[in-house]
Design a protein that fits this description.
The structure is a single chain. The protein is an alpha+beta fold. The protein has two domains: about 80 residues, no CATH class; about 150 residues, Cupredoxins -  blue copper proteins (Immunoglobulin-like), CATH 2.60.40.420. The protein is about 35% helix and about 20% strand. The chain has six helices and ten strands, in the order ααααββββββββββαα. The chain has a five-stranded mixed β-sheet. A five-stranded mixed β-sheet has the order 4-10-9-6-7. Helix 3 packs antiparallel against helix 4. The longest helix is centred in the N-terminal third of the chain and has 32 residues. The relative contact order is 0.14. The structure holds copper (II) ion. The site of copper (II) ion has 7 residues, from loops. Copper (II) ion binds next to loops.
Length: about 290
């Protein structure tokens, strides 16, 4: 334990958190995720060291020596070893499962009284953000073919950096994020929040998060969703409550009031929607 402490004392912050991007305390969940990640690696490296050690030991001790011929002594099985390598992995797998399930249940625990509700729509290839409590919104500019833009990985599309949508969130507030899609499956990923979740047409997914660090964090779509998927970027700006109020008030003053709801979805073939063609066909067949 002491040697472990010494070993860890020599580590940089980046190494201590297993090279995950977020700084400690970025959200109420990041330290939990980092802890699970780092502890898993320590356990797995210990398993690795024991396994590599035993392998090298067996290779060296039981190597064929000069003058030896024929096969070595053949063993059918060794009961203690059989039990050891059945029980230990079982304990490891159950342990990983239990700790993961516990952290996941914590992270997925809905807020009974969120301070803010944000309704996000993913669309090819941008984001609409609805600030539900303030009844204001921002509409992301959809990337499209055109002159090459500043952030392009793709020479034929027109997105420029200033057009990347920004989601503004107040610090230290409980936020419920509703995730929707207007067309195909996307995935809402804020890298430094160490969490992402799919946005599925016709279904609402939820994320519950309390941002705890003021700053700007990069977000992107994490589900291949078509030609300009790589330009489906956004920023999350975590600000003070006062700045948040000023931002949403400014949106209201500029006339961005109301919500961009399902009526802008591109899909019309969801369950319960009848195709206009099917209606005329049934009319003519009468
Ligand atoms: Cu996408």
């Amino acid at each position: 334990m002491v040697s472990m402490g010494l070993l860890l004392a020599g580590c940089s912050q980046q190494q201590l958190q297993g090279f995950l991007p977020a700084e400690p305390g970025t959200t109420n969940n990041t330290d939990k995720v980092t802890g699970l990640w780092v502890t898993s690696w320590i356990v797995l490296l210990a398993v690795g060291v024991i396994t590599w050690g035993l392998t090298i030991w067996a290779v060296v001790v039981f190597r064929r020596r000069r003058g030896q011929t024929g096969l070595p002594v053949q063993l059918r099985y060794n009961m203690p070893i059989e039990i050891f390598y059945t029980v230990v992995p079982l304990i490891l797998v159950l342990g990983f499962f239990a700790f993961t399930a516990k952290d996941q249940a914590d992270i997925e625990q809905p807020y009974s009284a969120p301070d803010e509700v944000i309704s996000v729509y993913g669309k090819q290839w941008a984001w609409d953000f609805n600030y539900v409590n303030q009844n204001v919104y921002t509409a992301g500019v959809q990337d499209q073919p055109g002159e090459p833009g500043a952030v392009d990985t793709d020479a034929n599309s027109a997105l420029v950096e200033s057009q990347i949508p920004t989601l503004v969130l107040p610090v230290d507030k409980k936020i419920t994020i509703e995730l929707h899609s207007r067309d195909v499956i996307h995935s809402f990923w804020v890298i430094d929040f160490l969490y992402k979740k799919d946005m599925i047409p016709g279904k609402t997914n939820y994320m519950y998060v309390t941002p705890e660090r003021i700053g700007t964090f990069a977000g992107k779509c994490a589900e291949l969703c078509g030609e300009y998927h790589s330009d489906m970027l956004f920023n999350v700006k975590v600000v003070s409550q006062a700045d948040y109020e000023a931002y949403t008030k400014d949106l209201a003053d500029k006339g961005f009031t109301g919500q961009l709801g399902d009526d802008y979805n591109r899909n019309t073939n969801l369950p319960g929607t009848v195709s206009p063609l099917a209606e005329t066909e049934s009319e003519t067949s009468k």
